[in-house]
Amino acid sequence: MGMAEAILLTIATAATPLLLAAIGELVVERSGVLNLGVEGMMLMGAVAGFGVALTTGSPWLGVVAAAIVGALFSLLFGFLALTLVTNQVATGLALTLLGIGLSGMIGEAFVGEPGVKLGSLYIPGLTDLPLVGRLIFGQDPMFYISLLLTGGVMWFLFRTRAGLTLRSVGDSHTSAHALGIRVIAIRYLAVMFGGACAGLAGAQLSLVYTTQWIENMTAGRGWIALALVVFASWRPWRVLAGAYLFGAITIAQLHIQATNLSDLAGLPGPLLWFATLLKSIPSQFLSALPYLATVVVLVLISRNRRLTMMNTPASLGRAFVPDR
Amino acid sequence: MKRMLLALAASAAVLVTAGAASAQDKTKACFIYVGPIGDFGWSYQHHQGALEMQKNLGGEEKVEISYLESVPEGADAERALERFARSGCQIIFTTSFGYMDATNKVAAKFPDVKFEHATGFKRDHPNVSTYNSRFYEGRYVQGVIAAKLSKAGVAGYIASFPIPEVVMGIDAFVLGAQSVNPDFKVKVVWANTWFDPGKEADAAKVLIDQGVDIITQHTDSTAPMQVAAERGVKAFGQASDMIKFGPETQLTSIVDNWGPYYTERVKAVMDGTWEQVDVWGGMKEGHVVMAPYTNMPDDVKAAAEAAEAKIKSGEFNPFTGPIAKQDGSEWLKSGEVAEDGVLLGLNFYVKGVDDQLPQ
Lengths: 324, 359
Prior knowledge:
The structure holds 2 protein chains of 2 kinds. Chain A is mainly α. Chain A has helices at 3-30, 38-56, 59-83, 88-106, 133-137, 141-159, 161-171, 173-178, 183-209, 221-231, 236-258, 269-279, 283-301, 305-311. Chain A has a single domain (3-311), classed as ABC transporter involved in vitamin B12 uptake, BtuC (Orthogonal Bundle). Chain A is globular, with a radius of gyration of 21 Å. The model of chain A has no long low-confidence stretch (mean pLDDT 91). Chain B is of the alpha/beta class. Chain B is built from 11 helices and 15 strands. In chain B, α3 runs parallel beside α4 (100-109) and α5 (135-149) packs antiparallel against α10. Classes of the chains: A mainly alpha, B alpha/beta. At the A-B interface, α1, α4, α10, α11 and α13 of A face α1, β8, α7 and α8 of B.
């Protein structure tokens, strides 16, 4: 396996959980609901996926369980925020807190147990192709699922009638309601889709990324996914770009740190100078770089204010009570 | 975002009380942990120590244990500590460096309660003790093993934060390796976190891609061990015995063994003999224990055992001169041993570390 290939594979694994969680949250927010419970839902998915895979021995059952548990857990948010019309921000935060605590309690028995890994794809012939074989035909299933979901969401939101309906609910719930669209029902479905995606993101963490369960193992990835959605101005392809950019810079900065100056002896002058310059950046700054660069790039590509306004779901986070 | 997470964690900290309400003949020992006890690392090991202490001293009838998990360092810790002190705790262990000021502040208000602060150095009141372990002794042994075993002649080191404790570990590891192979190299990656399994796994992958064939870590999760197992390189565990995560990968692990100290201190409270101490125990005191040496040839194992025995007997200190600083200037003369005070504030690399220490 070549170095470039190895780097790209590592980036894909780092980006996939962010993409999965963010693409789900994007649909939720497009329907006008702000669910800050992503981190909690991811953890519930991670513990459910790990537990089911460990007890049944089938990682695939774990993946399915994670999606179901994520969706069911998000229903709790749905019931409170949509049916009882509680404050969405507070309810979302509460969901995260509950998710952290509950997953830790459920997962107590799983701590210190090596899990079951969801294996990578292997197609004889294709996977063995030089350079692109492993990248295109040899990654783990969650990588393909995340890309299919992103494509599916793009198509659904902008190419189908149902997608248009969902966006209209997010833009003006009163108008949508006046047209006879069942605002609450659509939002419930969107919230559950977001929950299922977050659950899958959790399963990717506990079944692929690191095959283990540890309390709070998401370590803030749910919050990064939330930020990605906003900075990507609610466009699926930008979420994809943002997630991969974040992953790429995370891995690149680790490579810069791991490279010793003595490894570079023999590089041509200007390259050596540049590498030495990179090496002189403090590691604390390098660690912060993925956050910084992703925000800057996404802000730059969405600098057209009018287009951004158009993409922002106008009813985002606002409570809706149907007036008979 | 970090601040927000901390605030969340603060509200998430849940008070757990084991056993029934305190009776007169029971001693109540309380613990404050910085992470979840399910982290299988730092906090997990402290909790194991607490449980061992309870068992040693006669079980639930004699000792009542109370603990708080995931308590953020700073003002929240003070509140948690006051709550503990009021609820009848006779001795309180605060198990992270960042609880230092809160511990001393609350100790002033409750002179009858004994406080034990891990890894700190402030003892402002007679009822505050400090305790720590010489983990660097284990790192030295790991360095010996790495240099004996590595074919590439280079090991990967996943570090958390550039604090003396971690720098001390890197220096000791390199000194151990140099005792076998003076040209041995180490690649250091700062994760800037104690706990992020995903990031730790990434760091391990990157290091292996860059050609290291041995991974060691000063972060808390088992993720690097698993990556090493998948990629077929060897690794050292951290804080607890991680052999389950790499049956054919783990060489050994530095196990934090707090049980003996906790037993001794709580027993002192029971007997009424508790006095202020400043303990920095190592292999000799049984505070630092090496997990079994596995997945290595007999001669490497013998070398590791010899190094361990030498340190354990007190005959040898890893920080014994001649040792030069990274820039080549002299730090310790031949035969000179580093003072504890210098080690506790260590902020420079020894010669042979090819990395820039973040300041």
